[in-house]
Amino acid sequence: QVQLVESGGGLVQPGGSLRLSCAASGLIFDMYAMSWYRQAPGKERELVAVITTSGGSTNYADSVKGRFTISRDNAKNTVYLQMNSLKPEDTAVYSCKGRSDYLRRTYWGQGTQVTVSS
């Protein structure tokens, strides 16, 4: 059974930092490109960041460039999202996604709430 389990969310003040983790099990982790998405209340889900299978390439939404960093540890089957200089508009449920075009499989985690507020 495949599971993606996010952790690390919470309440943080503007300007603060959080690191999200997504631990994967039940799949061959290094065959999956990993992504972080977020969805704020009343808004559509937004792609935040993506990292390739080896971690050699990353891409970010313009709204988070220079503030967020995605990384992965294939030995630990985990992908991370380091979020710095957080803003109230970063408030959302953050979810990770694993996608393998070769295996034609996509999996989602359940999400973790991030709230940026003073």
Class based on secondary structure composition and strand pairing:
mainly beta
Tally of DSSP β-strands: 11
User: Average pLDDT value?
Assistant: 97
Helix content: under 10%
The radius of gyration computed from the alpha-carbon positions, rounded to a whole number of angstroms, is: 14 Å
Please write the string of helix (H) and strand (E) elements.
EEEEEEEEEEE
| Tally of individual helices | 0
Strand content: over 45%
- The unreliable regions are none
Report how far the terminal alpha carbons are from each other: 40 Å
Strand count, sense and barrel status of the largest sheet are: 7 strands, mixed
The coarse overall form would be globular
Describe this protein with a few key phrases.
118 residues, mainly beta, 7-stranded mixed β-sheet, 4-stranded antiparallel β-sheet, 11 strands, 0% helix
